[in-house]
Amino acid sequence: MTQASAEALRSPLPRSTPMSTTTVYKVSGMTCGHCESAVREEVSALAGVSSVEAVAATGLVTITATEPLDDEAVRAAVDEAGYELSGRA
Fold first, then answer.
1. At what angle do helices 71-81 and 33-44 cross, to 10 degrees?
2. What is the mean pLDDT of the chain?
3. 57/26 Cα distance (integer angstroms)
C-alpha cells in the first residue's frame, strides 16, 4: 500500500490539492487481482480520473481525479466491471 493510500484510509473525507481530489470507496465482490484490474479499467475511463488503486483484500478503491467525482458515475463504472459500490469509505 502506498503512503497516499494509507493516508486516504485514515481520512473519510476527500483530500484535495490544487490539482486533484482523492476519494476512497468501498466495493464488494472483489476477490483477486483480476477483479482489481476490472475495476481499475472501468473507473480509469471516467473523465478526469488520473489514478485508481483497487485492493481486493480490503475492498477499497482509491481514486485520484482532477475534480470531485460524481458518485453515481463511479457506481456505474463499478457496476460495469461486475461489482457493487457500497459507498464512500
1. 140
2. 88
3. 11
